[in-house]
Write a structure and sequence with these properties.
By secondary structure, the chain is an all-alpha fold. The chain is built from nine helices and no strands. The N and C termini lie far apart (65 Å).
C-alpha cells in the first residue's frame, strides 16, 4: 500500500526532471549549436549534475533524440488543436494551419535554430529522419486533403492539390530560413500577408 501511494509522485518527478533536461537541451542547442552542446552544458543549464542526465537518458544521442521527439510531438499537438478549432470550412482550416507556422510561439529565436540543427543531421541520423519523415508525411497529407476539398468546392480547373501543398510548404520553409538568418528584421505581418496572397492566387473564390 505504501509503495503504491508513493509511485505516482516518483513518476511525476521523473517526468518533470526529463522535461527540465529537454528544455535545457533546447536552450543549449539554440545558443551553441548541436555539435558544441555537451552533456555538461545541458546539466549546467538545468542546474543539475551530469549524473542526473546520464540516469535519465544514458547518452547524449538519447537525449538529442528525445529532444527532437518532444519538439515533433509539441508541434503535432498544436497542429491538431488548430485543425480542430479552426474552420468550419477547409479554406479556414488551411489558412489557420499555414499561419500557425508563422506564429511567434512556433517561429521564435529558441525553437527555430533547434529545428534547423536537427534537420541538418537528418541525412546521417536514421532515427532523426524517421521522426521527421513521419511528421512531414502527416502534415502534407492534411494540407493536400484540405486543398482537394477547396478545389472541389470552387470547381477550380487545372489546380493540383499536391502542387499547392508543396508550394505552401516551400513558402513557409523559406520563411523559417529567413527568420533563422535575420530574426530581428523578419516581419511576421508581411509574411502572413504573403501567405494570404498565395492562397488568394490559387483559390480566389475562397480567399477574396
Amino acid at each position: 500500500m505504501g509503495a503504491t501511494a508513493k509511485s505516482p509522485r516518483r513518476t511525476a518527478s521523473r517526468e518533470q526532471r526529463r522535461q527540465q533536461l529537454i528544455d535545457a537541451t533546447i536552450k543549449c542547442i539554440a545558443r551553441k549549436g548541436m555539435g558544441s552542446t555537451s552533456i555538461g552544458d545541458v546539466a549546467k543549464e538545468a542546474g543539475l549534475s551530469q549524473g542526473i542526465v546520464n540516469l535519465h537518458f544514458k547518452s547524449k544521442d538519447n537525449l538529442l533524440t528525445e529532444t527532437l521527439r518532444f519538439l515533433a510531438d509539441e508541434y503535432k499537438t498544436q497542429f491538431r488543436k488548430t485543425l480542430d478549432e479552426s474552420g468550419p470550412g477547409a479554406a479556414e482550416k488551411l489558412q489557420a494551419l499555414i499561419q500557425l507556422d508563422l506564429d511567434p510561439a512556433i517561429m521564435n529565436r529558441q525553437k527555430t535554430p533547434v529545428w534547423f540543427a536537427f534537420w541538418g543531421e537528418v541525412k546521417s541520423r536514421p532515427t532523426y529522419r524517421k521522426i521527421c519523415d513521419a511528421r512531414d508525411r502527416y502534415y502534407d497529407e492534411v494540407a493536400e486533403d484540405l486543398c482537394t476539398t477547396i478545389i472541389a468546392e470552387g470547381k477550380y480547373r487545372n489546380v493540383s492539390p499536391s502542387s499547392v501543398a508543396i508550394a505552401l510548404n516551400a513558402m513557409t520553409n523559406g520563411m523559417w530560413l529567413s527568420y533563422l538568418i535575420s530574426p530581428q528584421s523578419f516581419d511576421h505581418e508581411r509574411a502572413s500577408n504573403a501567405v494570404s496572397d498565395l492562397l488568394r492566387a490559387y483559390f480566389p473564390k475562397h480567399y477574396a
